Amino acid sequence: MFAKQLTVFIENRTGRLCEVLNVLKNNNVNILSLSLADTTEFGLLRLIVNDPALGKEKLSECGFSSLLSDVSIIKIPHKVGSLQELLRAIDNDGVNIEYMYGLSIEGESAYVVLKASDIAKVDAILIANNIETVSCEQIANG
Predict the structure, then answer these.
(1) Kind and range of the H or E element at 120?
(2) Per-residue pLDDT tens for 10-67?
(3) Which residue among 4, 98, 124, 126 has the highest number of C-beta atoms inside a 10 angstrom radius?
(4) How far from the centroid of its chain's Cα atoms is residue 81's Cα?
């Protein structure tokens, strides 16, 4: 079974990511998972959303370049070595993995990993806005 992934090409400049997210929010497109990779001049924002066709349509209307592609969303047991076993099976068939990123849902909460140039500043912002963070140990212990 395949899922549709929405990929958005965005300039690597302040505020551009928020502009993309505002378009999705204003059109009731819910983000289930995301990955952001950057180069010097642009970024690739890969999204699993509740309505990829609508997301692409609305982003195009706002001047964003995007595309839909087929991906697999694979459920694996939450135990040591499960991902490696899956990857070995794929590798044994000679299939190259182009990229992958995590999707984690617990109840009604989702977790994202954020890398920033000034992590101390981000931490202060999160604390000031009463936004909860969790450690790797907390996630591992459920």
Answers:
(1) helix 119-128
(2) 998 889 999 999 999 999 998 888 899 888 888 999 998 889 999 999 999 999 999 9
(3) 4
(4) 23
Strand partners, 136: none
Confidence class for position 140, pLDDT limits 50, 70, 90: very low
Of residues 102, 117, 120, 113, the one with CA closest to residue 135: 113
60-87 residues labelled b (16+ CB within 10 A) or e (exposed):
eeeebebeeeebeeeeeeeeeeeeeeee
Q: Which two tokens mark 111?
A: 């977790």
Amino acid letter, 95: V
39 sits in the region (left: phi over 0; alpha: psi -120 to 50; else beta) called beta
The tokens describing 52, both together, are 């990829």
Q: Is the dihedral of CA 17, 116, 30, 132 positive or negative?
A: negative
Distance of alpha carbon 108 from alpha carbon 43, whole angstroms: 29
